[in-house]
Amino acid sequence: MQAVLRAPRFWGTFLTIVALFAVTGPYGTREMMQPAERLGYWLAVHAVTWTIAIGASILADLALKPHLEGPVLRMMLGSLLAALPIGLALVGLDALMRGVPPMLDNVLWRAAQALPLCALFCILTILTLRPEPERRSGGSLLDWPMAEQETAGKRPEQAAAASSPVSPSPALAPAAATSHAVPLLDRLKPEHRAALLRLSVQDHYTEIVTARGRELVLLRFSDALREVGGTPGLQVHRSHWVADAFVADLKREDGRLFVVTRDGGSLPVSRSFQESVRQRFARA
């Protein structure tokens, strides 16, 4: 929700639509209301409906992830289910601001009218949340879920659990004492600032793992990569970066290449990175 509310495109679209409704005065509001009153009415209507639809989209994405693959489908389902509470909210606003008596039939009619708008709100939310590299490359909306499906990780609400310390091998201890100037570390809590070990995409967050722990930061992965400073490392996947000192070995499972890290974990290697990974980390 923070990512949506901070997006200039979101607010530009919202204000444009409110202004359009206020000027044209649909649903009889032009004849019944003065310009200032009409602007206030449509501002209230759109603020309430957008909040309900976008909130329902994001909640559905969180709640349905264990049961339904693909964030686009989950968010669209949540947005459409929001039509009924939106219909109820609109009837309440009409009663409050236009003096229209609240009736059950009006709730159902308003909910039916809200369905296409709910889908529109959902698409706008997806476009706002879609990672910046995919927007620039012109990928379709369905490209976005692939990154999520390939990333095995936690959601932002698990940040507290994810801050548990990492137990690197003794070989990494000197690295913690002589860490490079890494701008990315300034984003972490002081107790987590140490040698950078790896980065991973966790939905709209970047998980930063150091020799002293891990932390989720609301930051695009591409921006995180630009802030690793002089830390020697390599991007091995569009969702993973690993420091040279944290790589223990390479392995293959079911025809796929993985980087084995010093804490016993493993990171998948994308096809486009396999050659550079072999050249850098393959043991003689």
TrEMBL record:
Which keywords, in A-to-Z order, does the entry hold?
A: Membrane, Transmembrane, Transmembrane helix
Superkingdom assignment = Bacteria
Query: What Pfam families does its record include?
Result: LytTR
Domain called HTH LytTR-type: residue spans: 194-283
Q: Does the keyword Ribonucleoprotein apply?
A: no
Transmembrane feature ranges:
12-29, 41-64, 76-96, 108-129
For the region Disordered, give the residue spans: 148-173
Spell out the Low complexity composition-biased ranges. 159-173
Output this protein's name. Answer: HTH LytTR-type domain-containing protein
